[in-house]
Design goal:
Blueprint: H1 2-42, H2 44-70, H3 77-84, H4 86-129, H5 132-158, E1 175-176, E2 183-184, E3 189-191, E4 196-198, E5 203-205, E6 210-212, H6 217-237, H7 239-253, H8 255-265, H9 274-310, H10 314-329, H11 342-350, H12 357-362
Antiparallel strand pairs: 1-2, 3-4, 5-6
The chain binds zinc ion (ZN) (2 copies).
């Protein structure tokens, strides 16, 4: 009886102990799991992974946001490059516009200084030392060249290059100007310095402070040509005087040396008056300036001769070269639609319609307007190659 009672009590105690252990573990398990997850969260490697994933998500989201801001199906590398360099373009455009006035004043100042020296120093020497036919030649050619330079420079500055109409019209257009929001006729391009579309635009010239376009292209070219001719003429005419002046200045620089040697060799010391010294310096100034301008402007003039012979403007030359390469890669040949043949290109450019115009419109000052209105351009039917496009 006693042993049975003891076994029963012992069994009840063991049952209650087992139930207590289970309850304890049941309460302990969530705590342990909570601690485990907290440890995992605090674990540095796991935290790094989480952070890197969060950073990746943030980066992907930022990229998507950025792309959504500038996404355009027509966007390409050129547009991106233009957008990046837009502040630089803005600065160049505004400074060029402002410097245009300074450049024009500089041209007038330099031309005036050369003219003053020619009339004050060089012409008296020519009249006093040259034979009569040479004097007549210098007087006639020099003044004709001067008139041509001044006339064409003035006209190139004062003549508007030509702009397409801002109001709605029936003109044929090849595209829309993104800045002016107007139709662009063929051969028209936007000048970012003038901030307008220009008909048959060649380039913006800071030395004219004006765009070179359909209505003043001939004046610009004639100015370059006659200015180059005038500079070559001055340079050649002053050559002998330049050599004399250069030697005289070299001797003047060595005067202290001559004085030092005078007692030994009895060398006569060179004596130049103020007028002589000014004459030497002015002749050297004129020769150096005109020779430099003749080389620089001569190169530019020759380049424009090539372009006009091809029936292209400077802008079109750039576009046509790219187009030519693009078609060449496809096995095709590009042909400029505004190339009417060498002679015809020159006739159209100079406005020569009959033989007498070569004299009256090319070799004499003439303010005739160019052929056409700059809005309509007839495409050339001339084909040098049957497969050309
Ligand atoms: Zn425009
Ligand atoms: Zn311009």
């Amino acid at each position: 009886m006693r042993s049975h009672e003891l076994r029963r009590r012992t069994g009840r105690r063991s049952k209650s102990a087992a139930g207590g252990a289970m309850g304890h573990w049941r309460r302990l398990f969530p705590t342990v799991m909570r601690l485990f997850f907290r440890c995992l969260r605090l674990c540095p490697r796991w935290g790094q992974g989480c952070r890197s994933r969060q950073l990746q998500e943030l980066w992907s989201y930022s990229r998507l946001l950025l792309k959504s801001l500038y996404f355009n199906s027509l966007c390409n590398f050129d547009v991106v490059l233009d957008s990046i360099f837009e502040p630089v373009y803005w600065l160049v455009d505004h400074f060029t516009r402002w410097f245009g006035v300074v450049f024009v004043c500089l041209v007038i100042l330099l031309m005036s200084s050369v003219l003053f020296i020619i009339y004050y120093y060089v012409l008296p020497v020519i009249i006093n030392t040259y034979s009569t036919p040479w004097i007549v030649w210098h007087l006639c050619y020099g003044h004709w060249n001067l008139v041509m330079v001044v006339f064409h420079y003035y006209k190139a500055i004062r003549t508007h290059p030509g702009h397409p109409p801002l109001v709605k019209s029936d003109i044929s257009s090849v595209s829309i100007c993104k800045k002016c929001i107007i139709p662009k006729p063929p051969r028209t391009h936007h000048c970012s310095i003038c901030n307008r579309c220009v008909l048959k635009m060649d380039h913006h010239c800071p030395w004219l402070n004006n765009c070179v376009g359909h209505f003043n292209h001939r004046y610009f070219f004639a100015f370059c040509l006659f200015m180059t001719m005038g500079c070559i003429y001055c340079s050649l005419s002053c050559w002998n005087m330049f050599v004399g002046a250069y030697n005289a200045i070299e001797v003047s620089c060595c005067v202290p040396f001559f004085i030092m040697l005078k007692s030994y060799y009895q060398t006569p010391e060179p004596s130049f008056t103020f007028h002589d010294r000014m004459f030497h310096k002015c002749i050297i100034y004129v020769w150096v300036l005109t020779s430099s301008v003749a080389v620089a402007l001569g190169g530019l003039t020759m380049w424009h001769v090539v372009l006009i012979t091809r029936g292209e403007t400077s802008v079109e030359r750039h576009i046509n070269r790219k187009e030519c390469q693009r078609l060449k890669d496809r096995g095709k040949i590009f042909q400029n639609p505004y190339n009417y043949g060498r002679l015809q290109n020159w006739k159209l450019f100079l406005g020569v319609e009959k033989y007498s115009h070569w004299l009256t419109r090319v070799f004499l000052p003439s303010d005739h307007t160019p052929c056409g209105d700059g809005l309509l351009w007839e495409r050339s039917t001339r084909r040098t190659c049957p497969t050309a496009i």
